[in-house]
């Protein structure tokens, strides 16, 4: 996989708690091809979020290699990490983390403006993504005026706004009821595939994981 959008090699993470060392990641190797959607399966506490935090360059303390788009991201300074997150990555979390004082369109416009898009380009892109997710009639609604499923759809649109090569989703439907989760996940997968992005989706749900291109399991700090 020479053209892998992501390649992890011997990724490790340990914590010290109460004088005891806890090994969360014990040498993780993973490659993700462009456009591939990978389910990261494991029970709560298995280290799925820790792995996504490593790939997302959201905290330090990791050992090993994190190659993003052919660049060794683990060795970058803070400015370099910010650049890679902006240009390479999109994030979807279990909770939407939308800006409460911004409407749906504005929440999707903002990351594009940060990257340098014009207002017109950003609004057109936001409108297109939100409409594709069935929110064409909710463009000017604030998060408090949207249902849980609608809020998460806005979060998906925001994650894809800058056309990232890789989307990281941490239990993206974990806060939704089963029926809504099925619909939102289907829309997420359809949109990610349509955009040509790759994705890693952390979940503990076997049924949802089966809808993705490949399933890897995190067990005792290693991937199987």
Q: What can you see in these coordinates?
A:
- α3 crosses α4 and α5 packs parallel to α6.
- It is built from seven helices and ten strands.
- Helix content is 36%, strand content 27%.
- It is globular and about 50 Å long.
- It has one domain: P-loop containing nucleotide triphosphate hydrolases (Rossmann fold, 3-Layer(aba) Sandwich), CATH 3.40.50.300.
Structural category: alpha/beta
Number of strands: 10
Low-confidence stretches: none
**Radius of gyration (Å):** 17 Å
Indicate the CATH class. Alpha Beta
List SSEs in N-to-C order: EEEHEEHEHHHEHEHEE
Estimate the mean pLDDT confidence. 88
Please describe the biggest sheet, giving its number of strands, its sense, and whether it closes into a barrel.
6 strands, mixed
Q: Could you name the CATH homologous superfamily?
A: P-loop containing nucleotide triphosphate hydrolases
| Number of domain units | 1
Strand content: 25-35%
Distance between the termini: 18 Å
Basic shape: globular
Please state how the strands of the largest beta sheet are arranged side by side. 6-7-8-3-9-10
User: Helix fraction?
Assistant: 25-40%
Question: What is the CATH architecture term?
Answer: 3-Layer(aba) Sandwich
Number of helices: 7
Per CATH, what is the topology?
Rossmann fold
């Amino acid at each position: 996989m020479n053209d892998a959008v992501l390649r992890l090699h011997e990724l490790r993470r340990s914590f010290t708690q109460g004088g005891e060392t806890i090994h969360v990641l014990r040498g993780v190797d993973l490659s993700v091809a462009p456009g591939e959607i990978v389910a990261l399966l494991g029970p709560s506490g298995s280290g799925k979020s820790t792995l996504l935090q490593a790939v997302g360059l959201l905290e330090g303390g990791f050992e090993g290699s994190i190659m993003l788009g052919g660049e060794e991201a683990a060795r970058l300074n803070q400015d370099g990490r910010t650049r890679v997150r902006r240009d390479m990555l999109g994030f979807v979390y279990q909770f939407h983390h939308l800006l409460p004082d911004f409407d749906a369109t504005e929440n999707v416009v903002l990351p594009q403006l940060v990257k340098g898009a014009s207002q017109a380009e950003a609004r057109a892109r936001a409108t297109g993504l939100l409409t594709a997710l069935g929110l064409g009639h909710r463009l000017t609604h604030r998060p408090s005026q949207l249902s849980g499923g609608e809020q998460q759809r806005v979060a998906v649109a925001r994650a894809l706004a800058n056309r990232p090569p890789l989307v990281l989703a941490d239990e993206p439907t974990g806060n939704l009821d089963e029926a809504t989760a099925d619909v939102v996940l289907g829309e997420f997968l359809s949109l990610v595939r349509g955009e040509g992005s790759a994705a890693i989706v952390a979940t503990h749900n076997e049924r949802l994981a089966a809808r993705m291109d490949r399933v890897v399991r995190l067990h005792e700090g290693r991937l199987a």
